[in-house]
Structures are given as C-alpha cells and as structure tokens.
Fold this protein.
Amino acid sequence: MHKLLVLYPEPADRGTFDTYYRATHLPLVRKLPGVRDVQYSLGLTGDPYYAVFEATFDSTEQFAAAMSSAEGQAVAADVPNYATGGAVVIDFAVTSDEHAAA
C-alpha cells in the first residue's frame, strides 16, 4: 500500500479554501487512476495546519502512475488555486507489523 499525505497551513481565507477544495479540487482527486480511498479534514484547531488530506493506493507503482497521469498533473497544477498558505506533500509506502500487539 502507498499513501499520499498533504498538510495545508492556514490559508488566507478559510471560506474560499473550503469551498474551492470541496467543489473543485476533491472531484479532480477522485479521478486519479487507482486511488482507493480519500480522507480529509478541514478547520483543524490547535495544530500548525488548517487541513489534512490522505489518499491510499494499492502500491507505490500505482501511486507513481496516478501522479504522472493527466489527472495527476491536473491535481498538482490545481493546488496553487486554493492553497494560499502552501502545502506540505508527503508520500510513503506503508509497512505494517502483523505481529504487533492489538
């Protein structure tokens, strides 16, 4: 499994960020080939970030293919349209320990 994590610092205007993010950016994200799951939270309080986004892919290869696709390029190009505070993008392969205590 592979995850994409995006952390958004405080935007210039929360209302504009929220409206654009939900109406325009997330529909683009949902078109990424191979995306399994999308989760996000807006309006975080007490944290250094205003919003967080996470997407899951079956593999690193699927993630790479999705991000290099036309849809992935559209998603990346759209970020400056709403993320006035910038964005911290982290992607990583997920490792699980099947023997960890529950």
